[in-house]
Write a structure and sequence with these properties.
By secondary structure, the chain is mainly alpha-helical. The chain is built from eight helices and no strands.
Length: 161
């Protein structure tokens, strides 16, 4: 059964999540290779990347999804580097728990029959961020299209509301 159409940004988010899982699997595979005794032949970074992508393509329902893994990124992650997803999460205005609370509140308001508009959501988040960040939070707020991006990022939970 084909996947329903999604926006370009949602498709990029899905691809990014898939790549993050694949990189985690590739790091584990490379660690296994590095733990082998020196007498055995070890697979290199490029080989591990190609194997993980082939495994993914044989087990997925969407084998046409073009996913590639970079061996340099794999090496950086193996050495303890941060993934791009973790780096971007560190720059977010809201923590993961705060985002979950905002989602719960949006769902609750919708169940009560008062769904929040994008501007109302943005006002509420600006209030939360101002309360917990103080003067470090800019007076302009979270951003022009922040609410739309937030709803799209969490569309799997907010699609009915």
């Amino acid at each position: 059964m084909p996947r329903k159409p999604v926006s370009k940004t949602k498709a990029a988010q899905i691809t990014s999540e898939i790549k993050a899982r694949l990189y985690a699997h590739a790091v584990a595979r490379y660690q296994e290779e590095e733990n082998k005794p020196s007498s055995e032949k070890k697979k290199g970074l490029c080989t591990i990347c190609n194997l993980v992508v082939k495994e993914y393509q044989t087990t997925t329902r969407h084998p046409n999804l073009d996913v590639t893994l970079n061996h340099i990124t794999l090496l950086n992650l193996y050495r303890g580097g941060t993934s791009i997803q973790d780096f971007n999460m560190s720059k977010a205005w809201l923590s993961t728990k705060e985002e979950e609370e905002v989602i719960k509140a949006l769902i609750q308001f919708s169940k009560w029959g008062f769904p929040l508009s994008y501007s109302q959501l943005q006002e509420q988040v600006n209030t939360i961020c101002t309360a917990h960040l103080g003067k470090r939070f800019p007076k302009t707020g979270v951003g022009k299209c922040w609410a739309q991006r937030f709803v799209e990022r969490h569309s799997d939970q907010l699609h009915l509301y």
